[in-house]
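Continuing from the previous page of notes. For each protein in this section, the sequence appears first, followed by its structure tokens. Read the first protein now.
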Amino acid sequence: MKIRPLLGVTVAAVLTLAACGGSDSSSDTTTAPAAEGVDLLAAGCPETVSLQTDWNPEAEHGNLYQLVGPGYTVDTAKLRVSGDLMAGGKTTGVKVEIRAGGPAIGYSQVTAELYKDPSILLGFTSTDEAVAHSGDEFPTVAVVAPFNINPQIIMWDPATYPDVKEIADLKEPGVKVRYFGGAAYMEYFTGTGILDKKQTDDTYDGAPASFLAAGGKDAQQGFGTAEPYFYEKVLTEWMKPVAYQYIHEAGWTAYAQSLGGTPANIEKYD
């Protein structure tokens, strides 16, 4: 199987938004006939193309979920969605399985999951994570980057800090900035003087509890595609706007959530 034709179908389906998921989920997992001229199974693809995300399903994962056809199955135990892999509104002869990450995999890094379970064809990686693991036991090869700009942000309460317009403005008042431990962008921020290391806190776990407990005094990382809407429209304990800046705009320009695989899988399907 050639992985590039597979990815060509994948990207085409994402860009045209032609593979919208169906209505009610179903336990019927029979594969529909492949679209004319597109038979990935005959080309050597695995019967199920497994894709590993890095968090609970969110807006920026939509390019993957658009690949899942009608009659999909939701596995609430393993936190996965599977169905026919679609392209141009037609099936491709194989299944696609999208696996939730973050809490669903015990906060394990996607790169580690790719090695733990070789049946995962591709998973979300980022430039910084790939570089960090390039010399150890978890090297990866990225094959497509869905985003031109990393959707990660640093967010803060504009009511508490009305004069803060960008991440660098958080430095002078010494605002605590909470982030996921090991994030390379924070090393960049502290190394270049955008933030002071003493004001950073690597205990962020993706939940809003600490932000709420601080009552707007702390800043934290998030995604521009998720947290601003969630905090203003959904989170009943907050229900007001947050201000934010993309870390890309602050100078950290790594590709985020690229789809990559192990060198062995890339070579096998290249």
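Done with the first. The second protein uses the same format. Note its length before scrolling.
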Amino acid sequence: MNLDLALDHAATKVIQLCKEFMLSDKQIKEISSRFLGDVKNGLAKNTHHSSPVKCYVTYVQDLPNGKEKGKFLALDLGGSNFRVLVVDLDEGKFEMESKIYAIPLEKMTGTVNE
């Protein structure tokens, strides 16, 4: 088997495998509809607790326009790191200080009571 034939065979195999993940327009619309319903339930006070998509109020009311001023604190608790950022915005310029703290393994695997 020459290289070109092997590559053609591999490409055909990849295309066949990818076809299993192709969605029809109907399937995409159904998924979108279900997701939108779950988001609406996640936002509603009376259905939030049972929704598979939890939505929390962020108090972000608008998109940034470049005129923002002040110091802002950002906290990001990820899987293995805790990131702390202080961002100072003024007249279209910014300064940022950040620190990353590793989360100890015993804290990642502890019980709720610990």
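What the second structure shows: Residues 66 and 92 are 6 Å apart (CA to CA). The radius of gyration is 24 Å. We return to this in next week's lecture.
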